[in-house]
Design goal:
heterodimer; A: 229 residues; Rossmann fold; six-stranded mixed sheet; four-stranded antiparallel sheet; 31% helix; globular; B: 299 residues; alpha+beta; 2 domains; 4 strands
């Protein structure tokens, strides 16, 4: 199997506190990985580094064969087009319709009108909000807003999907639905990394779990197994 | 196509969302550029006036008394073949006396007692338009002054130099005021762009995260700056045109300085378009200044 994400001895300090400490990890192409840890464990820092929003103080990061730490500023947008991102607060544009929000990554890339229409419709159908494409995000429930956010992250067919606390604002039933959606996306070949502090998520996923504690990679296991060294 | 439409729409949305700031920016830019425009108008009109007045500037080349007609013809030929000369008119002693009597009939008796006609023969020379500057005229006069048979060369040097000096000062003032107020316009539009950026920081952040390039993020703001600059410039031209018409009307109504209203001209259409383009450029520059660090790939 090919590693699509590689972190090699990565460390990062925030105001003299180690956000990540000597983390080395590989994620294979097509994997579904849960990144577990309490708030402040370094999960978000790790995800931000994967899309070059932050740079490590030490170590190397490779995503889809590119050394993220060595990318020029002008190359970063092209990395981000291959890596979809889902956020806890959805980050939807409030004055744009659901359709326009999802179309944004395609517009940015200069896709044709025809492609935009086809791909946005497909993405909205995949997350089951295609019937709401003319509505504004504010008129949707939190679960639906998260689905729109997911549709936006997959609309241009990314190789990796990163989700930072995607269920943080959702009730258990919506959480299960969203996790099922990620599993579906993963089943279509996209590598999925979900960062969460919510242990309930483990109930719905029987996949690889990476646990971070205060910036240190504590253990790797499969969901349902005990914490191993 | 959709990308282009998106960028234009975003620029429009920016302006509509920050309506008050946009209007204030256009108005202040318009007044700043109108101040520059006043100096430009003054400069253009004085140049025109100077040009038309300089057309009337004649150089009088007085000849020595009793100069043989052969030498007069030789001088006439020399002057007519001079590349700096546009026209030459010979006035004989008798013609000069006749003109004196016509122009000053009450003083013509003064010449009666002298017996012989004391007025010299002369050439009235009109210089070519490109040689009517004070320096060129002075050089030409100095050259002709040394010619054999020439007694004296006369022209209104002081008046010509004064006008050229005045135009020079206005030109300098226009450049100085232009630079200062253009910088002010750039700052005003730059601040408007900065306010728009602050209002849309979250949106910019989202665009960065989904892979928008620095250029894609900036284009709507560049467009906004250019549109604000162009609108400000067009409005300033409107204000100036109104002021010029009002001035003309006042002259006609009061009757003072009558005749000069015909000499006051506004910028031709080509200059108006160039000024709108310049305003557009200033607005664009304002946006560029405030966007220098926006849209960088790294956080």
């Amino acid at each position: 199997m090919d590693a699509i994400i590689q972190l090699i001895h990565v460390s990062k300090w925030h105001a003299r506190r180690a956000a990540l400490s000597d983390v080395t990890v590989e994620i294979e192409k097509g994997e579904f990985v849960l990144l577990m840890g309490a708030s402040g464990a370094g999960k978000s820092t790790l995800l931000r580094m994967l899309i070059a929003e932050e740079q490590p103080d030490e170590g190397q990061i490779f995503v889809h064969g590119k050394n993220v730490t060595k990318l020029r500023a002008s190359e970063i947008p092209y990395l981000r087009r291959k890596v979809g991102a889902v956020f806890q607060d959805f980050r939807l544009l409030p004055k744009k319709s659901v359709f326009d929000n999802v179309a944004l990554p395609l517009i940015v890339q200069g896709a044709s009108e025809k492609d935009i229409h086809r791909k946005v419709t497909e993405a909205l159908r995949a997350v089951d909000v295609d019937h709401k494409n003319d509505q504004l995000p504010s008129s949707l429930s939190t679960g639906e807003q998260q689905r729109v956010c997911i549709a936006r992250s997959i609309v241009n067919g990314p190789v990796v999907l990163l989700a930072d606390e995607p269920t943080g604002n959702l009730d258990p039933e919506r959480t299960r639905e969203i996790i099922e959606l990620f599993k579906l996306i993963n089943a279509r070949g996209t590598t999925v990394v979900v960062a969460t502090h919510d242990p309930h998520v483990l109930k719905y996923v029987n996949r690889r779990v990476i646990t971070l504690v205060q910036g240190v990679l504590l253990a790797e296991r499969r969901a349902g197994e005990g914490v191993g060294g | 196509m959709r990308r282009l439409f998106y960028l234009i729409r975003e620029a429009w949305v920016n302006m509509r969302t920050n309506r008050t700031t946009t209007i204030v920016a256009v108005l202040t830019t318009a007044f700043a550029l109108a101040c520059v425009g006043i100096f430009l108008l003054l400069y253009v009109n004085l140049r025109n006036a100077a040009g038309s007045l300089q057309e009337d500037v004649k150089v009088m080349v007085y000849l020595e008394d009793r100069l043989p007609s052969e030498q007069v013809r030789e001088l006439d030929r020399t002057l007519k073949t001079d590349r700096m000369v546009d026209g030459v008119l010979f006035i004989s002693k008798a013609q000069a006396l006749g003109e004196f009597r016509v122009q000053f009939p009450s003083e013509s008796h003064l010449l009666e007692g002298l017996g012989e006609n004391p007025l010299p023969a002369s050439f009235v020379v009109t210089l070519a338009p490109s040689f009517r500057s004070p320096d060129a005229m002075k050089a030409w006069v100095e050259r002709v002054q040394t010619m054999e048979g020439v007694a004296k060369v006369d022209y209104n040097q002081e008046w010509s130099s004064l006008l050229a000096g005045l135009i020079g000062y206005i030109e300098l003032a226009a450049i100085g005021v232009g630079i200062l107020l253009s910088a002010a316009a750039v700052t005003i539009i730059g601040n408007t762009t900065r306010l728009a950026l602050l209002a849309r920081q979250e949106e910019i952040e989202i665009l960065r995260l989904i892979g928008a390039t620095r250029t894609f993020i900036r284009i709507p703001y560049f467009l906004e700056g250019a549109v604000l600059g162009a609108c400000g410039s067009a409005l300033s031209l409107g204000i100036l045109k109104f002021a010029v018409e009002l001035f003309r009307q006042q002259i006609q109504l009061t009757g003072r300085f009558s005749g000069i209203e015909g000499m006051i001209s506004f910028f031709p259409l080509s200059v108006c378009l160039a000024l709108v383009m310049a305003g557009m450029g200033l607005g664009f520059a304002g946006s560029v200044v405030s966007l220098l660090r926006v849209g960088d790939g790294r956080a």
